[in-house]
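SEQUENCE WITH STRUCTURE:
===
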Amino acid sequence: MVIENGYFDHVNNPYYPDSTAQLRQTGSIVVSCTGKQETSGSAFTPSSFYSYTLDPAADVPSLVKTYAGPQANLGL
């Protein structure tokens, strides 16, 4: 698993791998969280498979509030 620029607020155990997983985390913000914040191994590098641009982790709460849920401009 790869976690990049996530935002964890008041989460118990925000990220941790099980015994068979690899987990790489970079750039995330952790606010008032408890429990496990563990990585293991190197997982994979997404940019080896496709191009993408990350939003800043600090922008995630605002982006979720803006774009989560039903959107009038999205058709079925």
About this structure: The chain has a mean pLDDT of 93. The chain is about 10% helix and 15% strand.
